[in-house]
Amino acid sequence: MFETAEVPGGRALQPLLHDVVICVAAPAFAASPRDGQLRGARAEGFYDHDRRLLHTVCLLIDDREPEPIGVQPLGPDRVRFTSVHRYPSDRTDDPTLIVERIRTAGEGETVSLHNVGTVARRLRIEVAVATDLADIADVKRGLTGRSLPCSVAKGGPGLGWRSRTGRAHVRAVEYEATPEVSGGPEGGTFTWDGVVLPPGASWRAGLSVTGRAVPDPPGHPVAPSSYVPWSEPVVRGDRRLVGLVRRGLADLRALRLADPQRAGAGAPEDQFIAAGCPWYLTLFGRDSIWSARMLLPLSTELARGTLWALARRQGTVHDVFREEAPGRILHELRPAEAQHGHGLRLPSHYYGSVDATPLFVSLLVEAWHWGLPDADVDALLPHAQRAMEWVVETSRRDEDGLLRYYPRPGGLLHQSWKDSADAVRDAEGRRIEPPLALCEVQGYAYEAATGLAELLGTRGLHDRAESLRGWAAALRKRFAEAFWIEAKDGPAPRYAAIAVGRSLTPVSGPASNMGQLLCSGILDPDGCRDIAAWLASPDLNSGWGLRSRSAAVPGFNPLSYHGGSVWTHDTAIAVQGLCATGCHEEAVALVDGLLDAAVHFSYRMPELYGGDARTGNSPAPLAYPAACRPQGWSAASGVAILAALLGLRPDAAGKVLRVRPVPPALLGPLAVEGLRLGDARPTVRVGSTGRAEVSGLPGGWRADTT
Fold it and tell me: Where are the domains of the chain?
């Protein structure tokens, strides 16, 4: 059914997205070229539930394509394409027929024609439509499906397609005259012939697009209700930060999904954030967890929904193909098993990540601190304990007690957030194969154990809490012994290795992973200062954000997936750690670059972008050509940075909100209204003197601003 793209060697390549216009209303989205004409190429089309419903929607007026003049986003889910239709016989060079197409994810599109000239026009308007009903995994692999035959629908002007794995329907709506509809072996056409448009008049018609996978995947995420489970803050301060927060929250609204498996009739809807559009518009363990974690200052409801969606799918058995194990947290949920290229074959429920499980535990702990109701905390606590048991038991697989991953053939080779095949390289540029213990994963595990121990202690489970503290202390000691690499040159005498192998040989070469250790508690103060110096150095700080790999080592590639590009969320997590450990100057250096990059991306931060060095006259940064945009944890990063700059840290046990803001001399005064702490909505203000003022705390809570 599928054909490879015409490239040297005949191998299909992943479609590039750098010039694709995406509008999204999860689980649906539309991907379009900038002229709005869908021609069945690359990733173009209307999608729903990982299924391409249409890949061709081509408009002709009098047998000619309109000439595009602009594209304007109307929100995360809608976009307007404007074109003109000109006539050589006109006595003016001005366009006299303006064409507008408004495309809406999950609905379809409307076509409007406006005669702004002085003579009447008689028009023939055609819209050609076709589809291959391809799975998103095949589209991502660069496979072009053959157009399927369609039939004229009964009961109104429309067309329908059906295959073994999908179905789609297109109907004409909101039209002034009934179109002629024809179907054939490679698609169909809606035709309006003899449309008379007097001067000043307009004509409009719409197409609705519906469909999905066949059969319906049981338990797959669905579109959420209109209710948004977080507050809309009012931020005052650096305009770039204000823009990043505002645009990020708008994109997150469009990336929401809901778990259809509610706790019962009348139970609250469990919403979570899809990983990213177009490739990962579904539940992803680590991505959805990080998005919810970054938004905790605005919501524990999103964290609750994310935790329950994952808890219902927590591993219960040992399954080699799914890489499932009791207590393990899901990595990825898809409608069906799929081939992902390069020998990667994944089931619909895939558990192949080493980091989602400890991150699940930490999300529950942090949500508790931010005021998640006790009933939810207690109901989710057994799931967190089972997750922690998986972490501890997996770490005992090797004598050194580190948390490693052991991928199966045909599964993901690397199982943390840097999951590309060449994500782990040493200082000589050589690829390092698993099993590996990644540095940030040890930090996640330590943070999960110490946080869960604190939570268990408040529930009277002191023996379990003490056991976890002992395990975490031993892990911290093993980390200190195994992960530090002495540096002959550099901003600090040592750095943390990206990983160690089974022989405890550290993988050399500075990488951004060590930035995610700063908030975990696994480092001592000297280690925090050493890492802060490396993160601020020009080899890792590109001037636009934190590079995933040092520019000073072989194998650095500023436009690779994990070998030198800048990841928005990775920079934000490093900023959180730098602020939490008092390294404010290093934090602001990264923030300033990231915010400048946000301006060039119109505040819709891509999943990742180029890691080229910034100079005084360097051009704007470029998005990675196949990056998701919008992307969940990138969109949530603005809130994470806001909370980091304010230095917010709630303590549920002590009922204290600690506020340790960045000195205003570094980034200016900052204020936010509409935070959430339990049922309260506190306000935090930091003026020009650096003094923090906090109001609106829950009853019994106090602020610590010393």
Answer: 2-213, 234-686
